[in-house]
Amino acid sequence: MKATIVTIGDEILIGQILDTNSRYISRALNANGITVCERTSIGDDRTQIIETLDRALAESQVVIITGGLGPTKDDITKHTLCDYFGSTLRYDEVEAEHIRKMLEARNIAFNELNRGQAMVPESCTVLHNSHGTAPGMWFEQGGSVVISLPGVPFEMQNLIDDEVMPRLRERFTLREIVHRTMITFGIAESILAERIASWEEALPDYIRLAYLPAPNMVRLRLSAYEVEGKEVCREIDALFDSLRTIIPDNIAGFEDASVEELVHNTLIERGKTLAVAESCTGGVIASKFTAQAGASAYLLCGVVAYSNEAKSKILGVKMSDITQYGAVSEQVAMAMAQGAKDISGSDFAISTTGIAGPTGGSEAKPVGTVWIGIATSNHCFAVRKNCGTDRSQIIARATAYAIAMLHEELNR
Amino acid sequence: MKATIVTIGDEILIGQILDTNSRYISRALNANGITVCERTSIGDDRTQIIETLDRALAESQVVIITGGLGPTKDDITKHTLCDYFGSTLRYDEVEAEHIRKMLEARNIAFNELNRGQAMVPESCTVLHNSHGTAPGMWFEQGGSVVISLPGVPFEMQNLIDDEVMPRLRERFTLREIVHRTMITFGIAESILAERIASWEEALPDYIRLAYLPAPNMVRLRLSAYEVEGKEVCREIDALFDSLRTIIPDNIAGFEDASVEELVHNTLIERGKTLAVAESCTGGVIASKFTAQAGASAYLLCGVVAYSNEAKSKILGVKMSDITQYGAVSEQVAMAMAQGAKDISGSDFAISTTGIAGPTGGSEAKPVGTVWIGIATSNHCFAVRKNCGTDRSQIIARATAYAIAMLHEELNR
Fold first, then answer.
1. Prediction pTM value
2. What are chain A's domains?
3. Could you tell me if the ipTM is greater than 0.85?
């Protein structure tokens, strides 16, 4: 079963917003055994919408469209779909009442544009959007399904979870897709590939291998599409077992989780706590943990000690150390980690201090230089990493390194 | 001048990674007067790559492809392009030497797979990737250009900035694209659209209007493609001027900046400082500021006070207030903001405390309840916001509300 995802909006094409909807929908479809063969972003343009729909329906049985359903003139998806399916618009009293109530709660009067939002094509099944004013739409044509959803991420997400997926599972007989990922560390991608070449060579043709490199690790993903789930899971387990004999010292885990998820799970399992002291990463490390439900069980505090005063006053870093070694130094990274551990009483603490640029670099400490500190009940140390040249890249890499180092420390 | 962006990789289609490359490339092309008419993500599949290229070349003079250039077997972009353009691979000594040096620095031996990375199609111009081991490639065909870049974001970004854009500007005569954005607040999208309907009606057909709603504000973007930049800029200024007479009390600014960028600029201009105390937003607010170069001029510190102990010990929130009113309360939000202001000596402080879920809600304080506090030298107050139902949505909305409130406070 194949699917195409189409996201509509000039704001995507000019790069004003990041298209996160496609990923959410991809994941949901994949988890339900539907293979996404293409994701396309196009503008709010009638001709382009029609041509893209024609093409999508030629190869996919499921087409999911987001965006272009707002009340204003630049949003043309609904009218275009209505014409495409040869339908006419009708006024939906239920949707109108829902929109009226949503606006009332915000003290906004229901006007002609909102009336337009309650108009839906005769031929579609209305997907009720309890979190917003633009209803979703479900069209059927020649055995295929076209689903149109609002572009606002949380409205789209709720519609996918509550309306679209249950209906797709009912409408089609879906076969499973299995992805399993092994996490390797301490071995470069090209060396890893060389070492496991004959194992890779011998993979059956319905199982695909992908290499996913990240700082300090390479993930190996085995994927099987439209299969008997249980059979292929056993087969993949066996394949990973044989891989274990080839690279016994380089396997960190088997989950399809991000490193922060692995750390999150480990800390909760062991009942250990964490504190974070960030300078150059500026809150990103803390946010990676707090993004996960249940982080309050272990994350005692985070300190974004951007100024020297904050490093000293909140974390207890000695001003003399900052003066002598510089704010970006092994000593200060260690003192920050130790300070965060001490003020919070946590079991583990991590810290970052570095030069995110574009200014502030020197020959000895160029932009991208980051010291990452770790403090535990046993020891306190810091490691210097070169995290690149671009500010956002430096922040992202320093974050990834710090979390990977904590992961390693937890699995020592 | 039209462009199509193609990102290749099964990891995008299954939703394992978020495609940020497309946005980066979109912005760069736009800034140089090239209109992106479509962005497509496809799998590591030879047939699909060829079909997508055929289609892209039928409508675009510039096609930019990322991904699929790694050393391993799942990466097939280079061989597919080589065949597509009827070329053969040659060994590039310069690239080989560069790869060898990059590996040497990481203590990795140059192997057969790395040798493969130094093979490039005869017919392409090699785009040197100084930050990675996979070179970029520039193909010419029938007046169009096809550019293939590695998928690793910072390698791709550097190639776009240093190689692709300068060459595109030299290769084509580019006309300007102008986007200008007005920020409105205190007026709902549908009401705004109603009020400015006749103004919108009268827009010339080469200027497009888009409504971009966000928490507490709606952006109005006027876009003109392939125009004489100076002329149309004057015209857009005049259009915005006339809009000012229609909604005089709802205009926050004219920049095409995010609210955090506006706050960032204002604080730097006025020489004022900021401290952040976050509970439910867990570091995201701090990270929005520290993502911007120069944030160290005003951001004194951030505290992620996730536990009650951290709220009390670091920020000086009274434990009795937490017990009496709850951690998610007006009193605690105010005390957190005041505490952050006091410990850092900043001019402004913002705080968040809320229930990000999925657990922890009650009837009186359901999941999504967030108190946002602001402390200045004049006053300290907190506002309750309902930020939705989903954890990531709650964090994102609370962040947006908090920064928008600070923006309003700065423009009071």
1. 0.77
2. 2-171 (3.40.980.10), 177-253 (3.30.70.2860), 259-410 (3.90.950.20)
3. no
